[in-house]
Design a protein that fits this description.
The protein is an alpha/beta fold. Helices cover 40% and strands 13% of the residues. The protein has one domain: Glycosidases (TIM Barrel, Alpha-Beta Barrel). The longest helix has 25 residues. The chain binds 1-deoxynojirimycin.
Length: 479
């Protein structure tokens, strides 16, 4: 292949090497370059097994709680499921080549527990192990760093049948799973994340029932929270002891900076309660501060009912980095309908926020929120490094003449990245940034409607089309 052909083939793969004019202008207006973030800053994209893989019954995989939940009636707003979805399971090689062509260096993905251990524990499934071997090896061949997450919400259904996260045995199940993963991939993988957004999967899955497994109430929530906080530390300890030389270990948190709607005492207190729930619940036990019972007294029940002697100590672990995942800030105010726990008023529509400042998820675009959250999490004792392991936006996208013009997403990334850089300059040890997401994918209870990708996926044909935002990164990340 001569140079011209090589350029043409890469250009065909990535849409185009050259930015359309208006986009090039936006790029120049961003006011910062990749170099401003430093030579060792990690640039990546994030994905998750259930959201992209498909192949839900292939090669020995057992159902996860999400397979069951999505097949259940009325659980997914669009009535869809991710049985096939983006079909990454079969298309991983060309997808990773595309990622490489976009000039990213890090691929964050998650390991599917029910692929590796179809019974949750016990006999490992070699075909499942081999799938991630292929993904990891392809990354390494292309010069991409593989960054797996151990748990991005797809608990094996067989374990949910025994109580899932509400059963303290999950500590043993997860330990066994961690050991298998370390043994299988530790020779090639150096960067690890243990849990994805513990607040989200416990609260949505075991308190309000909007996500799998659809359980509700404090009697499910409190034990699920406690066992998750224990696993969060225990799995890190296992990885460190199994892979003492190589591992760069982290775990991730969802976060939303809280602002009181009014400066009156009762609203400030409501905002504080919400902050404790949204932001403090899992990071504080990890850094040795215990649960935020000062602000949320109902959490004392965990200590009274579900904790065993020594648990407060066991919930601590000194990760090499933490991942923070941010999309929007939240405005808190006391309301009369939900005065006990918290009150929330983040609805952007109610506040008459301009339409182009509201994403397809209904979330308000609030770039300074990421800077504030970075500062909030960096202030905890013992935080060594922070990686933004997810940030991005869903907007309605359309393919027009083979292109997807998504100026709102481009603007979103520019504005949030400017704030990440500002936080870095203000002393936050932020050392990486991963976009959510690489491909459009299954947005949980919302189905496929919200599109978060840098790459558009036609769910009928599975064709991939790089959006302008993907091309923006391709240009921005060019060496
Ligand atoms: C949080 C989750 O980790 C991810 O799975 C989800 O799709 C995005 N944020 C967007 O909601």
């Amino acid at each position: 292949m001569n140079r011209r052909q090589a350029i043409q083939s890469t250009a065909a793969l990535a849409g185009s090497f050259f930015l359309p004019k208006p986009l090039a202008k936006l790029f120049l207006e961003a006011g910062f370059t990749k170099q401003d973030f430093g030579p060792n800053f990690k640039w990546g994209v994030a994905t998750a097994s259930y959201q992209i893989e498909g192949a839900w019954q292939e090669d020995g995989k057992s159902p996860s709680v999400w397979d069951t939940f999505a097949h259940g009636k009325k659980n997914i707003k669009t009535g869809e499921n991710a049985d096939v979805g983006c079909d990454f399971y079969h298309r991983y090689a060309s997808d990773l080549e595309l990622l490489k062509a976009l000039n990213f260096k890090v691929f964050r993905f998650s390991l599917g527990w029910p692929r590796l251990l179809p019974q949750g524990t016990g006999k490992a499934n070699q075909k499942g192990i081999d799938f991630y071997n292929r993904v990891i090896d392809k990354c390494l061949e292309l010069g991409l760093e593989p960054w797996p997450t151990l748990y991005h919400w797809d608990l094996p259904q067989v374990l949910e049948d025994k109580g899932g996260w509400t059963n303290r045995d999950v500590l043993n199940w997860f330990s066994e799973y961690t050991q298998l993963v370390a043994k299988s991939y530790g020779d090639r993988v150096q960067n690890w994340m243990v849990l994805n957004e513990p607040f989200a999967f416990t609260t949505l899955g075991y308190m309000v029932g909007w996500h799998a497994p659809g359980k509700k109430g404090l009697r499910n929530y409190l034990p699920a929270v406690h066992h998750t906080a224990l696993v969060q530390a225990e799995s890190g300890r296992i990885l460190r002891s199994e892979l003492p030389k190589t591992a760069n270990l982290g775990t991730t948190f969802s976060c939303s900076f809280l602002e009181p709607k009014f400066n009156a005492e009762k609203h400030v207190r409501a905002a504080k309660r919400m902050d404790a729930l949204l932001n403090r619940l899992f990071v504080e036990p990890l850094v040795g501060m215990g649960y935020p019972t000062d602000t949320l007294p109902f959490l004392r029940k965990i200590e009274e009912k579900y904790a065993q002697p020594g648990d407060m100590e066991r919930m601590k672990f000194d990760y090499d980095f933490i991942g923070i995942q941010n999309y929007f800030r939240v405005i808190g105010k006391r309301s009369f309908t939900t005065p006990v726990l918290w009150a929330n008023e983040h609805s952007a529509k109610k506040r008459h926020v301009p339409a182009d400042q509201i994403t397809d998820m209904g979330w308000e675009v609030t770039p300074d929120g990421i800077r504030q959250s970075l500062k909030q999490f960096a202030a905890y004792p013992g935080i060594k490094k922070i990686i933004v392991t997810e940030n991005g936006a869903a907007f309605p996208d359309m393919v027009e003449n083979g292109a997807v013009h998504d100026p709102l997403r481009v603007k979103f990334y520019e504005d949030y990245l400017a704030k990440v850089l500002q936080a870095k300059r203000e002393g936050v040890p932020v050392e990486g940034y991963f976009c959510w997401s690489f491909l459009d994918n299954f947005e949980w209870a919302e189905g496929f409607r919200p599109r978060f990708g840098l790459v558009y996926v036609d769910y009928e044909t599975k064709e991939r089309v790089v959006k302008d935002s993907g091309k923006w990164f391709q240009e921005f990340l060019k060496d």
